[in-house]
Specification:
Layout lengths: L1 E2 L3 H8 L5 H10 L19 E2 L5 E2 L4 E12 L2 E7 L8 E5 L3 E8 L8 E3 L14 E2 L4 E7 L5 E6 L6 H6 L4 E6 L1 H4 L9 E11 L5 E2 L4 H6 L5 E4 L2 E2 L1 E6 L2 E8 L6 E5 L5 E6 L2 E9 L1 E4 L4 E7 L7 E7 L14 E10 L22 E9 L9 E3 L11 E3 L4 E7 L7 E5 L4 E7 L15 E4 L4 E7 L4 E7 L2 H5 L3 E6 L1
Parallel strand pairs: 2-17, 3-6, 4-7, 6-12, 13-18, 17-25, 26-29, 28-35
Antiparallel strand pairs: 1-9, 4-5, 7-10, 8-11, 11-12, 13-14, 13-15, 15-16, 18-23, 19-22, 19-24, 20-21, 20-23, 24-25, 26-27, 29-33, 30-32, 30-34, 31-33, 34-35
This protein binds CU-O-CU linkage and copper (II) ion (CU) (2 copies).
Length: 485
């Protein structure tokens, strides 16, 4: 059964019971004005752990959020939370048109729920922060998968606890396949690998630490260890052929500038919840929290026993806390000769462009240090209130929504529930629409000084949220409700 959680509950969990004067002075005192990474990546860099691949489920029936045991750090067995026997959840893989029906049980000690990020489904199934599943209770998530092929994901959405629950292990992939996509004969089976990148901090007993300070609520909670699929310092053996990697940034706050250590280009074929019209060759790309990218990597002409890293290159323009350090994410070892006849297709799918918006809404993204009772990250001057509907949208209408970060100094990956959108324009900052944005999206990175406009058609009735997917910003209240009716 669903229960309503009020705002006081999560504010207390965040420690907002303290007087805000004390909070303001303590975070001003610690403010990082320099350009150094607040939490340098310094963990295990031996890349000797085989990449874990969560099991794929094509006919789902039940799922439990629960305490699990896993070996993640330093060979130590420790307690985490997950939806399976280890960290993370299984990969759901369903065909367009399929029926999804699971009995979800909450065996955690606190409330949780599941949000199906990227899926356009009825509001009652969306995992809105109102719709909580209390400890020892169940909820049936049931919906029809009615959208194009794409790389979606799922995670809990309990307001004030999302950052903690995701960081501690609750997240998984939800892949939608279609016959249109199948016809492209892209690399599949063991040549198609979902990769969720997450940065984490560990306690000495190898459990995951999640305790953001006021400073970390401002910039986001970053980890000093980079994990892929819940594997620290991972490697994957690959053959001399093309691979398809579906990459999800499942981190709380960290943005990655992904590149290959051999300097090779790779091909973007999909983003968030859909595919591009044609592959785009890139040398690197930025991926913010909540975003996904579907890429083809060519290992065909690489000599046996070569090691190639997926790495993060430094970048600028995303505030002082992001992009200052280069590091490796994972290692590919080319260790098997294979003959591959795959050719990168010249076109992928047809993408109907949305047009004729009948209304524009503009959302100012700000950080308000002077008046932060209950949260400092605001949208149009407001922090989240469960009982307030901030925007009302007519069902069936097409609108443009503009996220305005022109006065900000922090990046905000903005995400809208219950819809998919197309990026129409970005002005200021990077001033362009990027290759990984030319598809159906649900999350878009709005850098400091930028205004990003998206076009959206609202087809699902009911109450949804939109928010910053920096999970500390979100938990701090950078989220509003909208109702489609
Ligand atoms: Cu993945 Cu409301 O978020
Ligand atoms: Cu979502
Ligand atoms: Cu944000």
């Amino acid at each position: 059964m669903y229960k309503q959680i009020n705002r006081r509950d999560f504010l207390e969990k965040l420690g907002f019971g303290l007087s805000s004067t004390v909070l303001i002075s303590s975070c001003m005192g610690n403010m990082n004005m320099g350009g150094s990474d607040p939490v340098p990546v310094s963990g295990d860099t031996t890349f000797k752990n085989a990449l874990k691949i969560p099991e794929t489920i094509t006919s789902p029936s039940n799922m439990i959020a629960q305490a699990v045991q896993d070996t993640v750090m330093d060979g130590k067995n420790a307690k985490y939370i997950g939806y399976r026997s280890g960290l993370l959840g299984p990969t759901f893989r369903l065909q367009k048109g399929a029926n999804f029906n699971i009995k979800f049980s909450n065996q955690l000690a606190e409330h949780t729920n599941i949000h199906w990020h990227g899926l356009v489904i009825p509001a009652e199934m969306d995992g809105h922060p109102d719709q909580m599943v209390m400890p020892n209770e169940n909820f049936n998530y049931q919906f029809t998968v009615n959208q194009q092929a794409g790389t979606n994901w799922y995670h809990p959405h309990p307001h004030g606890l999302t950052g903690k629950q995701v960081t501690q292990g609750l997240a998984g992939f939800f892949i939608v396949e279609s016959s249109e996509e199948k016809a492209l004969n892209l690399p599949n089976g063991s040549y198609e690998v979902p990769l969720v990148i997450q940065d984490k901090r560990f306690n000495t007993d190898a459990t995951i630490k999640y305790s953001p300070t006021m400073m970390e609520i401002m910039s986001g909670y970053m980890g000093d260890n980079i994990l892929v699929n819940g594997t620290a310092s991972p490697y994957l053996n690959v053959s001399t052929r093309f691979y398809r990697f579906r990459v999800l940034n499942g981190s709380s706050a960290r943005i990655y500038n992904l590149a290959l250590s051999n300097g090779a280009n790779f091909y973007v074929i999909g983003a968030d919840s859909g595919m591009l019209e044609k592959p785009e060759s890139v040398n690197s790309l930025l991926l913010a929290s909540g975003e996904r990218v579907d890429i083809l990597v060519d290992f065909t002409n690489i000599a046996l026993n070569t090691e190639v890293y997926l790495e993060n290159k430094t970048f600028t323009g995303m505030g002082t806390a992001q992009g200052t350090q280069a590091f490796k994410v994972m290692k590919f070892i080319v260790n098997k000769q294979e003959t591959d006849t795959f050719k990168v297709p010249s076109s992928l799918i047809s993408l109907a462009k949305l047009s004729n918006a009948t209304k524009n809404r503009s959302f100012a993204l700000t950080m308000d240090m002077a008046n932060m009772s209950g949260g400092m990250h605001k949208i149009n001057g407001k922090i989240y209130s469960a009982t307030r509907i901030d925007e009302t949208v007519a069902v069936g209408s097409t609108e443009t929504w503009e996220f305005d970060n022109s006065t900000g100094d922090e990046p905000h990956p903005m995400h809208i529930h219950g819809v998919q959108f197309q990026v129409v324009s970005r002005t200021g900052g990077r001033n362009t629409i990027l290759p990984q944005e030319k598809a159906w999206k649900d999350t878009v990175l709005v850098a400091p000084t930028e205004k990003v406009k998206v076009i959206v058609k609202f087809e699902q009735k009911g109450k949804f949220v939109f928010h910053c997917h920096n999970l500390e910003h979100e938990d701090d209240g950078m989220m509003l409700n909208f109702e489609v009716k």
